[in-house]
Every structure is written in structure tokens, then in C-alpha cells.
Design a protein that fits this description.
The complex is a heterodimer. Chain A is mainly α. The radius of gyration of chain A is 24 Å and the shape is globular. By secondary structure, chain B is an all-alpha fold. In chain B, helix 3 packs across helix 13 and helix 5 packs antiparallel against helix 11. The longest helix of chain B is centred in the middle third of the chain and has 37 residues. Classes of the chains: A mainly alpha, B mainly alpha.
Chain lengths: ~300, ~300
């Protein structure tokens, strides 16, 4: 177990170094980062001033060591727009995003688990049809469009929820539903197929034949086995939601890092974009690490693989 | 018994078999139908669109759909903020979506297949390096990567195709490699090696034909995903130039008028749902048809 943990730690650290390399080259894809970071109609003098200020005239290897050295100390330079340290700006926005992703995750799990378990344990029933329907819809309805339609129906027409902002518990409902819809579909699919699979196992039949109530069988035997599979995908879905929050936070004016990245991209504030990218990737890497550890703790078979 | 079963299988031509599977699986049929409609409108857009997609008429801007009061059948789905015909723009918009989806998948699948074959077949350090890089790209939230690269490169159709082509390749690398490893372990590759077949023969005769099924299935889902993401980029103003009628650009415009003219955003979104529903059903169906194990049990 310790060896496994250690090797996963090393892997994660390597991954983070790789992420830094990618973010370094990402803004240099066109070969002229100063041009990328200035408005399209900027004068040559202004571009040259940017080149000078950002040190883009130095040899690439010097720029690279400077970037990596700064990153090691948590310094990702100044935001061009806010004129403040980029990473601390990101940190200010993190709580709002975490709040939103947790709400979305809660929404997705709350509906997906019963739907998947009932659907999977009674193939062909109305529950099964519902489960398959949501599984398919989750994959085919774009969250940005869903967000707009939720606003039309529940904010404009019915006036039940506010259409933007982060004020009070009502304001999180629409963004959380829009963001959680895709994970909901994924979870339903997974839970349903996992339930279908364990349904035929001997221990489930034994449990029924002992006269245990169906609810108890589903809860104690079926769901416990399904939850192992669920753990492996929850981490992945958090990563997805960080991406999806770019749309959802922009649409609902939710003050998190998703909206920040959209604003930074529009303002060509690439030091800030880099900081957000590194933070998000780091978040996903840590999450995957935790998922693997949790997985190894739950399921002893994993520890000895690879 | 076994020989009888084989004979029966041979009597039916492949075409008959495909037809039988199409009609056996209604969901697959619906998928083929939906995707067929989108493909048809993309190819024959100039002949079926009632208006030119760029033709503006500010006097009839934001006209409601025909079935609502104040609408007419001249513009069945109404008009947008510049008085352009919604239906025509949606029909033309399918061209952008399908082009991006098709070429994006073509590039990422070719790239991923070659790298995955090399990684899985050569193994050792080469495998470690290729998989290391692939996993690295999979660690960054996908949408974030795409948004940033699109912002750096600027708005053009070629850029969008390239972005999806390259950023999606790691997924195909991973799948190809996994399949190659699985196939290599199977008995027939072992027997082929033991009678002295060369690597080229093994790859082309034994590994590639087995790869086509799983890869084509994934390609369908990925194409649907790219259509999704292209619209998302357009929504953020990062896909094809603003003048081009694309579903994403239409959504971005519709968002401004969401309160009083919700149909401007609603219809392009429905077009996306329609297309991706078709492709997902098609993908499920392809999996059934192409997976030889599934075919036996069918």
C-alpha cells in the first residue's frame, strides 16, 4: 500500500510538471505571445512594449526557467487586466466554484442513484425507461443551451429563481441543475448497468431467498457494490464540471473561476489564463490521486495491480 | 449443429444482415434517420433552405415562429435579431458542425491510431513516453484546454478543426493501445507469430481489422462530442468567424435576446440535441453491429 501510494505521488508530481510545460508553450503556440496578449488592433509600439515588459525577447530557455522557477514558488506573474498577482486572484474565485460544483454533484447523485438502482433492478419498467432516457439526454443536451432554457422557463416565465448572480440559496439552483445534468446522465448509466450486472449474482439471490425485503437488498447489497464503481467516476466528473463551469458561470454571472477564465480570455489576459489552467489541472490531478487512494482502500484488489 | 449455424450465417449476405440489424433495433433506425436528415441538409443546404442564410431584413427582425401570433410561414422558425431566416441559418449551420466533427475525428483518429499502435506494439520506453504525454493531456480539463488554445490561435474553421483533431487524439491513443494489448494476448496473434509472421503482416492482417469496430464506435461518440464543443466555443465567441452561420454563433447571438425572443437561442440548441441524439443512437447501434461478440448473440 505504501509503495503504491508513493508511486502514485511521484506520478502526480510528474504530471504537474508536464502541465506547467504545456501552459508555458500554450501561449506561445503562434510564435508571438506579445501579439496574442495585445488587442487585435494594437499598434506595433504597443506590441513591442508588451514584448519588452513580459521578457519575450529573452532566449526561450531563460523564459522557461523563469516561468518554472516562479511556478515553483506559486508565482504566475501579474494579471494584465487586474494588475495583481494572478494566482491570488484565482484563489479568491475558488470558493464560489467549489460551492457550485458541489451543489451540481449533489443534485446529480441525488437523482441518479435511485433512478439507476430502480431502473437497473427492474428492467423494462417505467423506472428503467426513465433511467435510460436521462442517460441519453445527459449526453445529448448541451449544458449552455440547457442553462439558457432554464432561465427562459424558471426565471423569465415563472419567476421562481433568479437568472443570475450569487445571492442566497435560490440563486444556486439553476446553475447547479444546468451544470449537474451531464454528470447526472453519466451516473444514471453507470449505476443502472452496474445494478443490472450485480442483479444476477448469487449473493443477491441468496439475500432475496433469505426473505430480506427488497429495499434492504437494494440498499445493503446492490448499492454497496455499485458505489465502488461510482467512486471511480465522481473524480472524473469534477474535472468535467470545472470545464463546464466556463459556460454556466458566464451565463449565470456566478463569480467563480469558470467565469474568470472566460473574462480573461476575452481580455487577452493570458498570465491569468495560465494561472487558472495550472490551478484547474492541479485540482484534477489531486482529485484523481484521492480517487485512486479511496479506491485502493475500498477495494483491496486494486492495490496489487500494475 | 455448429456447422449448421455457420451455414445459416453464410446464406445471408452482409447487406441483408445489416438490414436485419437495422430493423431489429428501432433505436438504431431512429439514429440513422436523425443523422441522415442532418447530413442531407448539410449537403443540399442551398436547395432546401428557403432563404439565403446571410440575407438581412431589419424590418422583420426578431419575428416569432410561424405557429405563434404574428409569425408567418415565410419564416417558419422566425427570424433573428438582424431579420435573417432562422430555419435557413440552422440548415446552413449543419455544414459547419458536420465539417468540424468529421475532419476533427478523422485527424484525431488517424493520429491516435498510429501512436496507439506504436505504443502498444513496440512497448517499453516508447510506450511509456507516448502514454505519458497522452495522460498529461487527459489531465487538463478538456474544455479549458480547448478554450485557451482557441483564444490563442484565433477564429477560423481550420483552427477549430486542428484544435479538436489534436486535443482529442490522446483518447484514441489510449483506446487503440488498450485494444492492441488485448489482441496481442489472444491466441491467434500468438499462433501467427509462432509460425513466423512478420510484424507488418500481424498488424495489417490481425490487429487493424479488429481495431476498426471499437474505433468506429468511439469515433461516432467523439464526433457528436466535437459538434457539441464547437457550438460551445461558438457560444463563447471562439469558433468560426462571427459572419459564418453556425449553431454556436447563433446561440451566442440568441443569448442577448433570451428574455424577449427566446426562440433565437432555442432552435439552434434543438438542432444540436437532434444531431447528437442521432449520433449517440447510431453509436450504440454501431457497437452492436461491429462488435463480433455481440453479433453472435444477436
Amino acid at each position: 500500500m505504501q509503495r503504491y501510494l508513493f508511486s502514485r505521488l511521484i506520478q502526480s508530481a510528474l504530471l504537474m510538471v508536464g502541465v506547467l510545460v504545456i501552459t508555458f508553450f500554450m501561449v506561445r503556440l503562434t510564435g508571438d505571445p506579445a501579439r496574442v496578449m495585445t488587442p487585435r488592433d494594437a499598434s506595433p509600439e504597443r506590441v513591442e512594449a508588451m514584448r519588452e515588459a513580459m521578457g519575450f525577447n529573452d532566449p526561450l530557455i531563460i523564459q522557461f526557467t523563469r516561468y518554472m522557477g516562479g511556478a515553483a514558488r506559486g508565482n504566475f506573474g501579474q494579471s494584465l487586466h487586474y494588475r495583481a498577482p494572478a494566482m491570488s486572484l484565482v484563489m479568491q474565485r475558488v470558493p464560489a466554484t467549489i460551492e457550485l460544483t458541489l451543489a451540481a454533484m449533489g443534485f446529480a447523485l441525488f437523482f441518479a442513484i435511485p433512478l439507476g438502482v430502480f431502473g437497473g433492478s427492474r428492467p423494462g419498467s417505467i423506472w428503467d425507461t426513465l433511467a435510460r432516457g436521462f442517460g441519453l439526454l445527459g449526453q445529448t443536451v448541451p449544458n449552455f443551451w440547457l442553462a439558457l432554457m432554464l432561465i427562459v422557463v424558471f426565471a423569465v416565465d415563472l419567476g421562481w429563481f433568479p437568472s443570475f448572480g450569487r445571492s442566497g440559496p435560490m440563486s444556486i439552483v439553476l446553475p447547479a441543475v444546468a451544470l449537474g445534468f451531464f454528470p447526472l446522465g453519466q451516473f444514471v448509466r453507470l449505476v443502472r448497468s452496474a445494478t443490472l450486472e450485480v442483479r444476477g449474482e448469487d449473493y443477491i439471490r441468496t439475500a432475496y431467498s433469505k426473505g430480506i425485503e427488497e429495499r434492504a437488498v437494494l440498499g445493503r447489497h446492490v448499492f454497496r457494490n455499485v458505489s465502488i464503481t461510482l467512486v471511480s467516476i465522481v473524480g472524473v466528473q469534477f474535472g468535467y464540471m470545472l470545464g463546464g463551469s466556463i459556460y454556466i458561470e458566464s451565463i449565470f454571472s456566478w463569480p467563480g473561476i469558470g467565469r474568470m477564465i472566460n473574462e480573461a480570455v476575452q481580455a487577452r489576459d493570458f498570465p491569468l489564463v495560465q494561472a487558472i489552467a495550472v490551478f484547474s489541472a492541479g485540482f484534477v490531478v489531486v482529485l484523481n490521486l484521492l480517487t485512486d487512494v479511496a479506491y485502493a482502500l475500498i477495494d483491496p484488489r486494486i492495490r496489487y495491480e500494475d | 449443429m455448429r456447422i449448421d449455424a455457420l451455414d445459416q450465417e453464410n446464406v445471408r449476405s452482409p447487406f441483408q444482415r445489416v438490414l436485419r440489424i437495422v430493423f431489429r433495433d428501432k433505436a438504431g433506425l431512429v439514429g440513422v434517420l436523425l443523422f441522415g436528415i442532418v447530413l442531407f441538409s448539410a449537403i443540399f443546404a442551398p436547395y432546401i433552405a428557403p432563404h439565403h442564410p446571410l440575407e438581412q431584413n431589419l424590418r422583420i427582425s426578431r419575428q416569432v415562429p410561424a405557429w405563434q401570433e404574428g409569425g408567418d410561414w415565410e419564416h417558419p422558425l422566425g427570424t433573428d435579431n438582424l431579420g435573417r431566416d432562422m430555419l435557413s441559418r440552422i440548415i446552413y449551420g449543419s455544414r459547419v458542425s458536420l465539417t468540424v466533427g468529421f475532419f476533427g475525428v478523422l485527424i484525431s483518429m488517424s493520429l491516435g491510431m498510429i501512436l496507439g499502435l506504436v505504443a502498444g506494439y513496440v512497448g517499453g520506453r516508447t510506450d511509456n513516453i507516448i502514454m505519458g504525454i497522452a495522460n498529461l493531456f487527459l489531465a487538463i480539463p478538456y474544455l479549458l484546454l480547448v478554450v485557451v488554445v482557441a483564444a490563442v490561435l484565433g477564429r477560423s474553421l481550420i483552427n477549430v478543426i486542428m484544435i479538436f483533431g489534436f486535443t482529442n487524439a490522446p483518447l484514441f491513443v489510449r483506446i487503440t493501445r488498450g485494444e492492441v494489448l488485448r489482441i496481442r494476448k489472444s491466441g491467434y496473434v500468438e499462433s501467427a507469430t509462432s509460425i513466423g509472421a512478420r510484424p507488418g503482416r500481424i498488424i495489417f492482417q490481425h490487429i487493424l481489422p479488429n481495431l476498426i469496430g471499437p474505433l468506429l464506435t468511439v469515433a461516432t461518440f467523439e464526433m457528436s462530442g466535437m459538434i457539441f464543443y464547437e457550438a460551445g466555443l461558438g457560444f463563447l465567441g471562439l469558433s468560426v468567424p462571427p459572419g459564418v452561420p453556425s449553431w454556436g454563433n447563433m446561440l451566442a447571438a440568441g443569448r442577448q435576446y433570451i428574455q424577449f425572443s427566446p426562440w433565437i437561442a432555442a432552435f439552434p440548441g434543438l438542432a444540436i440535441v437532434f444531431t447528437s441524439l442521432g449520433m449517440n443512437l447510431l453509436g450504440d447501434w454501431l457497437r452492436d453491429v461491429l462488435d463480433p461478440k455481440m453479433r453472435r448473440s444477436a
